[in-house]
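G., before I forget:
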Amino acid sequence: MARRAPQRTSGPRASSRRDALETQARLLDAAGRLFAAKGFQETSVREICSAAEANVAAVRHHFGSKGGLYRTIVLRSHQGLLEHDPLPRFRDGDDPAAALGRAIEHLLRVTLVRRTGHPYAGQLFAHELRSPTAALDELLEKFLKPLRAEFARIVAALLQDADSPRLRGHCTTFVIGLCVFHELGKEPLKRFGFPPPQRESDVPRLARLVTQFAHAGILSLRQTT
Amino acid sequence: MARRAPQRTSGPRASSRRDALETQARLLDAAGRLFAAKGFQETSVREICSAAEANVAAVRHHFGSKGGLYRTIVLRSHQGLLEHDPLPRFRDGDDPAAALGRAIEHLLRVTLVRRTGHPYAGQLFAHELRSPTAALDELLEKFLKPLRAEFARIVAALLQDADSPRLRGHCTTFVIGLCVFHELGKEPLKRFGFPPPQRESDVPRLARLVTQFAHAGILSLRQTT
DNA sequence: GGCTATGTCAAACGCCCGTTTGACTTATAC
DNA sequence: GTATAAGTCAAACGGGCGTTTGACATAGCC
C-alpha cells in the first residue's frame, strides 16, 4: 500500500496567493466555456483542468468539488446578468405592448447572445431548462421566476378583462416558449437552415417578429370561447 | 489469469427461440421506458437489464450494443407513430386555418401523450431535440423534416401574398416551438404550477388555445414592415 | 447417438469518472 | 530560524460504465 513519492520533473513553481487567484480564474474561465457548450454531466474535471492548465486536485482545493465549481459559475453568471442586463420592469401606466417588445428582446438577447459580464448565462440557463438538477433550483428561483412573473404582468395587462389565472398562465408560457425555443431547439434549427441569431445586431429583427406574433396572439385570446 | 467457472445457482432455464423473443421484448420494453424517461446517456445497460430481468450480455447478443438497442427502439417508435398517428396532410383547397388546428393538435398529442403503438415516441423525440446525437439524424430526417414541411405549407397558405422564405421559416419555427416547448420545458413548467397535459382528453383544449394564438400571430405578420 | 447453433449466465476486462492522498514548494507569521 | 498555512503536483483510489469472455444449457438437425 506504499504510495510512490511524486517525482518532480519540472522546476519549482511559484505558489503565492496571487497565483492561486490566477489558477481559480483559469479554472472558472475554462469550466464556464465547457459547461456552457456541453452541460454539466458531459464535461469532465480532467477536461476542464487540461484546458485551464491546472492539476485535477485544484478543483477540490479551490471549489470543493466539480459541483462546487459549477455552482460558482452559475452564480456568477446570474450575478453578471443582474448587473449588466437587468430585466426591464413593467410599471403601471406603461404601454403593455411596448413593454412586451422590450421584455421579448431582453429575453432573446440574454438567451442567444454572448454578453460581456455573463458570457455563458444563456447557454447555462438553456442546459438547466433541458435537464434541471437539484443543485440548480436556485437558478429557476432567482432568474426564471422573476422573469416569468414579469411576463405574466405584461400579459395580464394585454388581456384586460379577459385575464384569468389560467389564460394568463398559458399566454405567458407561449411567449416565453417562443423566445426560449430558439435556444432550446438550436441544434435542429441549425440543421434545417434556420440557425438562431448569435450576433447582438440580429436580435432586434427577430424580436420584432416575435413581438408582433405574440402580441396578436394574446389579443386574439381576449375573445376566447 | 484463470477465469473462474460460472457457478449455476438456480435451476436450468429454457433457452428456445421463443424465450429469446420474450427476452428481446422485455429488453425493448424496459429500455424504451427508461430511455424515454432519462435519455440515452443517463440510462445504463445494467439498469435496463435489471428492469428487464435479463443478463447484461443479452444486450450485446440481441442488439449488438447499447446504441443498437436504442436505435431499434427509436426506429420502432417512429414506425408506430407513422402507423397509428399519421401526420394529417394539408391539400390544396383545404381551409388552412382548420389545417393549422389539426396539425397543432396532432403535434401536441404525439409529443405529450403516451399513445398506443408508440408510447415513448414523444419523449424520445424531445430528448433528441435537446441533445441530438450522430446516430439520430435519422429521426430528424424521417419525422421532423416532413413535419416541418407540412407546417410550412400551412403557414405559407395563411401568409398569402406576404409569404416569403424567411417569413415562412420564422412562422413555422414559432408554431412548432409553441407546441414542442410544452414538452421541452416540462420540468420548469411543472415547478411553476403549469404542468403540460398528459391525458389524451386534455390535449384539445390546449390545442385550441395554441391554434388561436398562432393563427392570429401568423395573420398579423401579413402586414409586416 | 453426436453435432451445431442459439441463448443465458456470472464474472471479468478495460476505460473513464470524480475524488483523495501525501510529498513537495513557497509565502507569511512568529 | 522555525512553524504554519496555502498551493501544486503525480499518482492512486474506488466505483460505474459498456463490453467481452467462456462455461453451460437447450433445440433442431444429421
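Residues 1-14 of chain A have pLDDT under 50 and may be disordered. Residues 3-10, 13-17, 19-20, 23, 54-58, 61-62 of chain A lie near DNA strand D (CB under 10 Å from a C1').

More on Monday.
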